[in-house]
Structures are given as structure tokens and as C-alpha cells.
Amino acid sequence: MQPIEKLEPENVYPEMTAAEAMVFVNERLYVIEQRYLSSLERTLLEGIWQGQGYQDIAKSSKYATDYFKRDAGPKFLKTILRIFNSGGSISRTTVKKFIQQQAYNQRAKIDNATEELKIYREKRTAQYFTENVGEDIGIDMILIPGGTFLMGSPEDELERSETEGPQHEVTVNQFFMGRYPITQAQWQALAARSQVNRKLNIEPAAFKGDNRPVEQVSWQDAIEFCDRLTRYTGRPYRLPTEAEWEYACRAGKTTPFYFGQSITTELINYKGSITYANSPQGEYREETTPVDYFGVANAFGLCDMHGNVYEWCQDHWHENYQGASDNGNVWLTSDPKTNRVIRGGAWLYEPKHCRSASRYTYPPDSRLYDTGFRIVCAIPTSNG
Question: 225-253 pLDDT, tens per residue?
């Protein structure tokens, strides 16, 4: 894609039709306020776009001119400023230019992000061990080195949510993490063993395949899996904390995805009919893929951290990071029934949910065909 040329003079922007402006404003309004333009707001936008005054706009509605001048018109202009986070001011005669400017700025930002999307494939060496859980069935556990990172998304990240902030520095100790989400073969090997606290369905997955990730397992089921593996091996297995998960996913990167600013279905299983950062439309597979399907990993050696299935974390859900600790430990509330965090996006969802900072929540007893998990093995820390 060719970069957008700077337009001169600076207050001239590409002409949009009223219909294009409607789509653009509706998209932004939904992101910020989870709603679309009302019929009255659409009437205002169409009229203003055609250069009409409030008197002419009133003729095509059931409202009087004074209502548009004193109430509906000013409210609409404030809404436009609010959803585009502008501290300035606009009038009825300048709102068209303002919207076109916002569209131009967003397009330029997306084009710049697309220019930065470069896929590098290189061989690296990861330290790991394989935990044998059954005949010819092992779980590769990758060593994740400790370090400090910025958790959450910056305020200008495309399609971010307020739940991803404020960004804060977190220090994480080293740990081992599963190379892939737990597969159905691995699940069945442990589900066949004696229970610790609860029974497990030996074949819960909707999309069958030994090498596909197990899904339709609850947070409670995932905890039972870890408990059985701990008893079987004598090593401390558990779910990752939310901080550990994001640190491991980013693998030193600050971009929305561990390979750059944008996303493609050549690398990730997600709803490819929806785009992100002007990436091309891709395949919408409508099911999970085997865990080694794409043959790519992040800098730590982890695969499928973006997409395929959501992954359970230890933490209780919090609406944002206000009050979060800086040590990477699990963050709990006083109510054990509180929803738990899931991370990573899934085959069913649009690409924005696959970003490293994206986070969502389900009740701990939920069993859904978009959610699985991967495991962590803690490394004891030394006090001296």
C-alpha cells in the first residue's frame, strides 16, 4: 500500500460522502460508547454534511428549529468531540472538516502500521524440558526468563479497551510455560488418572483432534488438570498469572502482537473476515487448528499465544489495573466466585481480541468452545 501523501494546505482533507462519514462516525461511536447514531443524530449529520442550516434540517424532521439550535445541535457537536477525544471546539459549519480530518489521521496511522507489518522467520534456541504424561505424550515446557515489562496497552493503541490500563511496570520472575495450549491428547492422559478434587470429562472438546487444543473446559477443570499433573510429577504446576501470560506473550515486544503492529491469518487462527490496522481480509476457519499448524513462535519459543483458543489465567477479573501490583503475582479479590481472566483471543473472534494486552472474563465454571488453557511450572526463588 502506498503511503498517503501530505496534503497542502493542511486544513484540506479527502472528501467523504455523507454515507462514508456515517460509517466512520458510527464505528468510532461504538468503540467509545457501545452504541450507534440515533435517527436524530443521523438527520443532523446528513443535513450538516449537505451544508444545511438548522432551519432546513428541521423541515425534514418533527422538531422545531429552536430545538436543533439550542439542544440537539450542540449535543451532537459535543458527542463528536467526545468520541474523538478532542479538547478543541467545532461548529455546525466546521464539523464536516473535523470529521474528514479525523478520518485522514486514522487512515495515515493505519497505513503507517501496515508498513511496519513485516514477518520474519528465524531459528532460535529455546531452553525447555518435556514432561511425559503418557505413552508417547509429552508437554514441552519452555523456560521464560525473568524480566520487567510495561503491562497493558498505551492509550493510542488501535481498538484498545479501558480495561487494559493504566499501563504499569511489572517485574516477573522466571518460570516454565507450555509451548502450546494443552492439547486433547494431553488432556485425556491426565483426565484418565485419579481425581484430586473433581471429576474431568475425558473428551470435552467440540472440535476433535489429538493435536488440537482442548476446549469446553472450565477454569475449575483447568485447576484440576494442574493438580493432577502436580501429584503425578511432583512438580508445582498451575495456571499462569495474568502478568506472566502477557509478559510471555510479548516476549520483549511493545507492539500489539509479538510479530508487529498488525495481524494475518497466515500466522493466527481468528475471525479473518474482520481486519485490524488495515490488514487484508483472511480466512475465517470457524474452528480450532492443531497447535503446531502455523509453525511460528515468539522470541521465547511459545506458539499460539494469539488466537485459536482463549486461555484461562489464575487471576480474578478486575475492571482495570488501578491498584494492581508490580510483582507479577496472582491478583485476587475476597470473593472466590469472582469471574476469572482469559487471554489471547480465539478462532471465533475479531483480531482486536488477539492483541497482547487484550483481556476478557468468564465465570470460573464456564465451558465454551473458544476457551482452553496452557500451564506454568514455577521455579522456586532463592532468598539468599
Answer: 999 999 999 999 999 999 999 999 999 99
Residue 12 pLDDT > 70:
no
Q: Measure the CA–CA gap between 377 and 240, rounded to whole angstroms.
A: 9
DSSP-derived 3-state class of residue 109: helix
Q: How far apart are CA 278 and CA 352, in angstroms?
A: 12
| Set of cell numbers at residue 292 | 503446531
Q: CB within 8 A of 149, min separation 6: which ones?
A: 169, 170, 172, 246, 247, 250, 252
CA angle centred on 272, ends 281 and 219, rounded to 5°:
160
- Residue 13 pLDDT class (50, 70, 90 cuts): low
Torsion sign (Cα): 151, 157, 159, 163: positive
Question: What pLDDT, on the 0 to 100 scale, is given for residue 31?
Answer: 67
**Residue 115: its H or E element:** helix 95-115
Collapsing DSSP states into helix, strand and coil, what is residue 349? coil
Of 49, 52, 55, 51, the residue nearest 37 (C-alpha): 49
Coil, strand, or helix at residue 19? helix
∠ CA 352-353-357 to the nearest 5 degrees?
Answer: 90
Strand partners, 257: 260
